[in-house]
Amino acid sequence: ETGVTQTPRHLVMGMTNKKSLKCEQHLGHNAMYWYKQSAKKPLELMFVYNFKEQTENNSVPSRFSPECPNSSHLFLHLHTLQPEDSALYLCASSQAYKRGSYNEQFFGPGTRLTVL
Amino acid sequence: GESVGLHLPTLSVQEGDNSIINCAYSNSASDYFIWYKQESGKGPQFIIDIRSNMDKRQGQRVTVLLNKTVKHLSLQIAATQPGDSAVYFCAEKNGTSYGKLTFGQGTILTVHP
């Protein structure tokens, strides 16, 4: 295993529901990420947190709301989603970033989300 | 209109053959290039990376080649094994960003015993 866990692994929700995805990393990292992987597009970065501060929001609709309470946990709160939001949502973590540097990202297994 | 999924390039090889997976990138400002492997039901797994000031880097059974002139990246896998069957993604990192990776569409590698 990679040291990054995600729950739930599968989620089915209606368009009016509110749900949250959880990610936890056990690697001592300080940067965490949310990605969306759908059948229609390549893997897309959604959000980046570096030392609990959001450093990237890749033009994600406001119906997706991230939360990073500490360096080990990352949440993605979902509300009033659309069927086209159905996808695999992947969390990743890495050592903290400085501009211009690269640190390997470790991915969790993902949450398979279906919006009815 | 009806939405369609990505049609990923596919590569089928026999066990023991060498595999070459190609990727074109677009951003001249990218400073790192990374290859990931994704097996069914799992998240992407790091294979190897290369900095933009290099043109070749070797790992265990894998070699990454970078041609900045034509913005081309390749992953060579030596003595391919059935366990190498997966989707392979290239990714590029913008030199000015905090870890923002842009992924390619992926290539499906199937290794036949």
Explain this structure to me?
The complex is a heterodimer of chains A (116) and B (113). In chain A, 0% of the residues lie in helices and 55% in strands. Chain A has strands at 4-7, 10-13, 18-25, 31-37, 44-50, 53-57, 64-70, 73-79, 87-94, 106-107, 111-115. In chain A, the strands form two sheets. In chain A, strands 2, 4, 5, 6, 9, 10 and 11 form a seven-stranded mixed beta sheet that branches. In chain A, strands 1-3-8-7 form a four-stranded antiparallel beta sheet, with no helix packed on it. Chain A is globular and about 40 Å long. Chain B has 113 residues and is an all-beta fold. Chain B contains no helices and ten strands. In chain B, the strands form two sheets. In chain B, strands 1, 3, 4, 8, 9 and 10 form a six-stranded mixed beta sheet that branches. In chain B, strand 8 and strand 9 (101-103) form a beta hairpin. The mean pLDDT of chain B is 91. The A-B interface holds A 2, 4, 31, 33, 39-45, 48, 50, 55-56, 58, 84, 90, 92, 94, 97, 99-100, 102-110 and B 3-6, 31-32, 34, 41-46, 49, 51, 89, 91, 93, 95-106.
Radius of gyration of chain A: 13 Å
Quaternary structure state of the chains depicted: heterodimer
Low-confidence stretches of chain A: none
Strand content of chain B: over 45%
Most strands sheet of chain A: 7 strands, mixed
What would you call the structural class of chain A?
A: mainly beta
Tell me the β content of chain A.
over 45%
Tell me the series of helices and strands of chain B, N- to C-terminal.
EEEEEEEEEE
What does this entry show, briefly?
The complex is a heterodimer of chains A (116) and B (113). With 116 residues, chain A is mainly beta.
